[in-house]
Every structure is written in structure tokens, then in C-alpha cells.
Fold this protein.
Amino acid sequence: MKSKIKKILIANRGEIAVRIARTCHELGIKTVAVHSDIDSGSPHVKCSDESYSLGAPKAGESYLNAQKIVEIAKKAGVDAIHPGYGFLSENAGFVASVENENIIFIGPGVDAMRKMGEKTSARRLASSLGIPMVPGSLDAVKNEKDGLIAAEAVGYPVLLKAAGGGGGKGMRVVRTPHEFTDNYRIAQSEASSAFGDDRVYIEKYLQNPRHVEIQILADNHGNAIHLGERECSIQRRHQKIIEESPSTILNEELRRLMTQASLELIRASGYTNAGTVEFIIDEEMNYYFLEMNTRLQVEHPVTELRTNIDIVREQIAIASGEVLGYAQKDIAFQGHAVECRIYAEDTTNSFMPSTGQITHLSSPKIHGLREDSGIETGSMVTTYYDPLLTKLITWGSTRREAIERMTDVLNHYELFGVRNNIDLCLWILTHVKFRDGVYSTTFLEREFDKKLLEEIPSDLLEIAAITAVHSTLTGNNLLHKNKYTSGSGWISQRKEHMG
Ligand code: ADP
Ligand code: ADP
Ligand code: MG
């Protein structure tokens, strides 16, 4: 590929920054890393050609500091900025300020990002196209009274969702009108502190749905294709843990309808670059549009292993104005892929974040394994950023083979120093319902431990974060003493993974 992009600033950290740099190196593109003070020795900095400091660890002062990042991009003379996921990746104001400096933003244009990135706006567009949607409000509710009326109209249980939300944050299930007021206030305040936007809307809360999403690629010349689906129903607190492709429930007809709906949305919004259209499917196999993620998705490697297409490479080609190198008929799907997100968290203690130093890390050499990692031995894990440490992705010619390989990988993966969810992933992979492919987004709360998966009030999470920092400093894990502690038996069998 002859790209006009010769140098890219990667406005992110952790595994995704490392992964983007890898493709850049393959393409002979120079990379510029940015980092907070505590990340100065991180793998994402070490693997880049140049690096610049952003300042204090808090995301607001570092990875979310749009102005500073644009200044560094100018100073370093980059042609483009890749935002990764999270942080500024879905911030249309950031895109505008990047483009203002004649720097290419590797992602959709400002208009399409505004239309599709904000959830109520995307719902309005989907609704105008006649795409099936979860019943609920098309606009954010104006106040509590308005919300109660909307909830009554939709029928309980309902889900309060942040219009600007993401990463499973700012979401509350409300089962009766009596629970509405408290949850409405909590959702508003969570949304406001996580996304700087307290607008909340209402959806019918579907029982035991499956989360299935479609990866799309669209160029600036009117060509758009899909790269199939990913099933992401294994979740905790509405955030994904294990993803796989193909989905075990999609039949050809449903797949055709969902990919068609996704491409319609892309065309109607003028969307370009890589994006993901998310759906949920109910127990009667009805599909509903959920939201669109206007960025590279965490679980994109699952699709890369099945299609042999490097999505980051395509993102760069599209951003530099090239015509999509593939027509739909060129896309061939092979075998099965599974991803486990390895998080620094205590699965026996309400999935509270775990912090500390990675004292030992060793990944097994197993054929068919891809690892996208953001850590190394000696890395410090803090609560400043997302608890995702590394992603393990296996491929197999059949689902069974991919899962067997993953089981083998997890059994031999050595990660000491912080508590993590490797044991949980193993437990899931060997669970008969997962093996049979009959699971939904409520799998963990039904099969694992409902109590551990209750929505945790944000103030408790905050206390946990402070306690975790404290325990890192003192070497004491105080988190173990709170009321959510459970003595689940399976976890004790693999103590070596628990730090
Ligand atoms: P994906 O949607 O790619 O499967 P997640 O939902 O797990 O991934 O989100 C990935 C990361 O991006 C998390 O750190 C999450 O907190 C962050 N994130 C996602 N959406 C937003 C958003 N709208 N604003 C801020 N951060 C977000
Ligand atoms: P986020 O922006 O945080 O990713 P999503 O709208 O994609 O938010 O929803 C995240 C998850 O929350 C879904 O995968 C699903 O498990 C759950 N969820 C979202 N909306 C509903 C709903 N209406 N009914 C049931 N579960 C839902
Ligand atoms: Mg989502």
C-alpha cells in the first residue's frame, strides 16, 4: 500500500496503542506515542519511534487532553492521529480540532460521528430507516416525571441509559416504579461524571438477550462492506469479557437482515472508516438495533483472525483516501475465533479493580494464539485507567478447536501480581452452556454468582478504587474484607493466577 500517511500519532495507551503501532511498523509508518507520567516506561511507549509526555496520570489531564495532543501532533509533524478506543475516540470536538490543523483523523468524519456516536441520535436515524429497535424513548428524558411516564409507556423492567454512554457505564435496570427515582439520579450522576453529559434515555429491558454485532468498513468513495458478526454476550456489568465469531445462534437469514440493516445505517449517515453496529437478539430471535461504536472495537481481532484482514491497516488506507481493496464477495470467513479479555479485577469480590505490580508474566507458545498485550513484567496496574491488561485470541478450524486452544492457553498463562479473571474465563469456557453455545448476556449472573454481579453504587466503586490504591501502597489487600466477598470453590483451584 502506498499511503500518503507517513507518520501517525497514537492517542491512546495499553494494548490498543501497541496493536496500532504494530500495523504502522509493518507499513513503514513512523509512530508517535503520548503518555501520562506514570506510563513513561510502558510497552506502548517503548514500541514507538518517538514519544511525548502529556502530564499527570488522571485521564482528564493526559489521554483526554485534546488540546495538548493536537499540539504534540503539530510539533511532531504527523500526518494523522489514530485514537484507538475509549478516551477521545468518539469525541467529535476532538475530530474537528484535529482536522482544523489539516491532520487526518483515522475514523469517521465529524458529522457521521455526531449522528451515530450519540445513542439517541443513532436511534432516531435507525427508527427513520425502519430498523427494528428496542422499544423506548427516542430522545433523552427531560426530567424525572417525564422519565416515569416514558417508563410506564414502555413497561417495566426498563433500562436507564446514558445518551453519551459507553463501556457499560451509566446504565441502570429499574424493575418497579418505586425504584425509578433513585436509579434515575444515580444514572444521571454516573453519566455526568463518566461522559460529562447527564442526559439519560429509556429502553425496555429485554430478558436474557444475546449481544451480536456487525463489523463494517466504508471508504470515502461510497463503498461499504461488512466483515461478519461477533457474539459478545458473556459480560459483567454490561461490559464484554469473552467474544467469539461466528455467533452460535445466527442463521443465514438473520445474518443477512442484520448485515443489511448495518450497511443501510452506514449509507444513511454517510459513515466512513471502520465501525461496529451493535444489536441485541431476544429469546424469540427478534433482532434490535442497540448502538453504533464509531471506532475500532476492543474485540476486532476476532474478526481479523476469521477474515485475514488487518482492520487497522484498512482504517489507515481509508483515511488516506484509498478505495476499499475488497468487495463483499472477496470476504471469506474461515474457522472460528474466540477472545478472552484479561482484566485486573477480583472476580470473588464484585469484580472490583485490582492494582499492583505485575511480578511475573509468561505467555505459552501455542499454535493458533494471538495475544494483544499492553503489559510486561514490572508493569504497574493502577485504577487511573481501564482494567484491561491483555487480550488472548485463539483461532481454530472449528468452534471446539478454538475453545480447546483457549483453554490450553489459559491453563498455561502465568500472570502474577494482580488479581485477574483468568480463572473465571476458564470456568466459563468449560461450562456446559457455553460449550453448547446456549448463553445470553445474563449468563454470569445466572450461572456464576448473582450477588457478585449486582450493580455497584458508584460511590462504593470509588471507595474500592481508593482502597485499591491504598492496598498497593501498603501491600495489603483490604478489598477482601468487604461484604461482597464470597468463598466460591472453583477459584481456589488455580491460586497461582490470583496474584
Ligand atoms: P467495545 O465497545 O469496543 O467492546 P468497551 O465497551 O469495553 O469496548 O469499551 C472499551 C473502552 O472504551 C473502555 O475503556 C470504555 O470505558 C471506553 N469507552 C467506551 N465508550 C466510551 C465513551 N462513550 N466514552 C468514554 N469511554 C468510552
Ligand atoms: P455501551 O455503550 O455501554 O456499550 P450498549 O447499549 O451497547 O452500551 O449496551 C451494553 C450492554 O448492556 C449490552 O451488550 C447488553 O448486555 C446490555 N443492554 C443494553 N441495552 C439493553 C436492553 N435494552 N435490554 C437488555 N440488555 C441491554
Ligand atoms: Mg455497546
